[in-house]
Amino acid sequence: MAKEKKSALEEKKGIQEPESINRSSIARIKSKRHKQPSTEDLISGILQP
Fold it and tell me: Cα–Cα distance between 9 and 17 in angstroms, integer?
């Protein structure tokens, strides 16, 4: 009878997986994004002489 080999790699309950996204990177990207003007702002900009 063949002996089953037990893997050294196994998941343990209660240990959370590390985050795959860096929170500081998200904050940096969000701060550099330009705010889109509203429809009213665009229309008023076009209609102004």
Answer: 14
The pair of three-digit structure tokens given for residue 1, joined into one six-digit string: 């009878």
- For the chain, the domains span 22-48
Question: Rounded to whole angstroms, how far apart are CA atoms 6 and 3?
Answer: 9
Distance, CA of 13 to CA of 20 (rounded, Å): 19
- Six-digit token pair at 8? 């050294």
d(CA 30, CA 13) in angstroms, rounded, equals 34
Span 1-49, pLDDT tens digits: 567 777 788 777 887 777 788 889 989 998 888 888 899 999 999 998 6
pTM over 0.85, yes/no: no
